[in-house]
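Let's practice the habit of predicting before peeking. Look at the sequence and jot down your guess about where helices and strands might fall. Then scroll down.
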Amino acid sequence: MTSMFQRTFKLSIREQHEHFVVQAFHDDSLLFVHEWLTPLCFLHEASLYGMVAIADDVTAHMSASMLLDILHDDFKHPFIELAAADAISETTLHKLRDVLPLWRTRDVWQYMRDNGQWHFPQSIDYTYLERGIYDELQRHDISISSLPSLLPLFEQNWPLQTAVDHQETQLAFRLNEPELDGDWLLEAVVQGKRAGSYWVPAVKKRMLPIHDVLPPKWAHAADHIAEQQTRALSLLSITQDEKSAHFFRKLLSDAELRQFLQHDVPNLQAFGYFVVLPAWLKDLKKTKLRTSVTASTGKSQASLNDPLEFNWQFSINDETMSAEQFRRLVGENREFIRVGSQWFQIDDEWLAQMKKVMEQTENSKWTVRDLLFREVQEELIEFIDEVDEQQSPTLQLHIQASLQNYLQQLENKEGLPPIPTPAALQADLRFYQQQGFEWLTFMRKQQFGACLADDMGLGKTIQLLTYVLHLFDEQPNANAVLIVAPTSVLGNWQREIERFAPSLRVYTHYGSARVKENFADTLKNERPHIVLSTYGTVTQDAEQFRDYIFSTITLDEAQTIKNMQTQQSRAIRKLYADHHIALTGTPVENRLSELWAIFDFIHRGYFGSFKTFNDTYITPIERDNNEQKKEELRLKIMPFLLRRTKRDPKLLLNLPEKQEQHEYCPLSTEQAVLYESYIQNALDDLNNLTPFERRGRILQTLTKLKQLCNHPALFLKEDVRDAQSLLKRSEKLKRILSLTADIVENGEQCLIFTQYIGMGELLQLCLKELHGIDAPFLTGATPKAQRDTLVEQFQAGAFPIFILSLKAGGTGLNLTAASHVLHADRWWNPAVENQATDRAYRIGQTRFVHVHKFITTGTIEEKIDAMLSAKQALSEDLIQSSNWLTELADDELKELFAYA
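Done guessing? Here is the structure:
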């Protein structure tokens, strides 16, 4: 008969990961949790009467065991009926109720086999029963892996009881701490119900049977106590003596103590045994010693190859411990240590790791080089653990003061020994140029190669000449310094030496009149301070150059040797000198292989073989964009590279502003028709070519299209004569000539860069015929003497327009008379374009510089421009990369070539 107080709760039950999400309804109204869960759990102490299940105001998270308990008669509320709120919940409730007859009964364990697997009848789904049992085991901290060994006990004691005591006595286990650094003592003790103390046998009676040592008042409980001890010992993993006739007593090592605390104590407590632990041990948490390691060389002055010595020191609670004491702690497998009156449990994993890292520092034979390149720090970093935001790390690396200073000098180029500017220098150095000179000298004394990679126009030349003057001030009889430069800037070097360091004797090894035999003897006899030569000449005379050991070899525009497999690059890298210096504004123009070639020159073998460098850095960085490898390479480059840019406000350059502007021009109708026709033929050809042939065809296509964007006459290879008719066929040509005429009319000068000889000649023709302007054209074929004369005349204002081929005129020249720079066509490397622009935008420039970049809209030029923006980071980051255009996929090529 239904009571007038009877209520029905409809439950919505949904499984979520390892628990159930439950809501309740009454008369179709969603109930707050406290309205239904509290009365349901009024007998359920394990869940603190439902409190641990509350998730929010209307939702409860329940384990399988809690749901089973709520449905079980032992905990069921007499006036509440439970029903399902929907079909899914109905299925869940049905499965739970099906297994209730076995829930909270010992009979359930008959279905477990010795291997720990369940074998229930297949007529019912027992999944929720298994989950409920595992929930209970977890609540009592009993490992599932221990089920087979504990099975006999579960068959006698399930559900787990909270006491297994006799009416007058209770068996317990007590852990006693060591007197000093000895072993721990675990012993069985007896507690009387009316006494608060624990009883143990007298020392002389410890080995007597339990029946013979109990006080007379407890003699009748001897069998019960013996039985309980036998049962308890079966729960211990630290002993096999499961049938001891006397009271259990065992000394535990730290490892056994850890096993006892982690595994045995939960088992004993789950089966109702009381375990007496030292009060402090209950709250003891694993801790780590504070560790300090100091790296030193034992010398007042260090070098990169000096071996490191490590001094370890440990501390806890303001007490210190030497490395020897720590090793003894490790050797004895101590995990619990007493410092003063306090005990500490040392984290065993940390202990093992620290032992490993100490052995690493002893066996790895680390040097100062490893410290500089962070290899030591990387090995130690995994052991540095921030215990708390307000505390310092548990492991701190200190570096000997003199060694730290040395590393700072290498890494940051700061704190270098000050050097007076040589008296023979005919110039005042800017402060950053003084720093560069001091750095080059420091690197020489440390026997390190150096790469001075300042932006174009920051004065690499004067820094190098100051270094040379200082070298001969200190070593008047030193061998000559070799400076290898592109032919285009050889004259510039002669003028700069004459201007800034006229006291230096210079021998120019160039041209047909140069010494071709007995080169070394000539240098020994004439004793020049500087030998000036070109890359081509040095390559031709490589055998003669190898007969002489130079004091220093400097490569100007060092990116010239970027292609390591060329005869020129190999010849240059085999020259002999006491010191190697690379000067370049673009240490990486396009590929990391170029970086390897430069560093193989300044520090032979530094990166190992090219194959090793490729496997270690090029492939992970260029293919996978691996950030860790990028950072690792930066760290290895940093000590040997000094790079400053014009954008750095710290340099206080006070350069005038520079504005870069895109000048967009449409294709003429003739150009557009030719463009689309040529694209279609090129794409058809690519489908039938080998990979090698494909690359060549792509480069050919790029060149033809860019010529077409300039003017159809270049594409069609026409003989150009009539300037007026030429003007009508290309908007770009018309815009360049119009802008140039305006610049001249304003009394200004400009540089026009182009990649193509034909474009330069076409511009010359049109400027002459249409505007009466004679504009010289500097190319790679221009003789050195004529080149030098043209540069001097332009700087003196003899002519307003100077046309230059991008490669021949893009490096080494000082053309600050120009206030405008025009790029008639775009190169697909921003570093090359920037070099060309820096012919005008450099120290010595006092006027606003306007850079004009001409782009034909909808063509390959506009799409390459977008790629250039992404590639700009290449030179700035030094170790970035971008896909070479010939490696683009078919879809990317179609997008690049398409006219839109």
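How did you do? The chain has five domains: 7-156, 169-282, 287-411, 431-651, 658-897.
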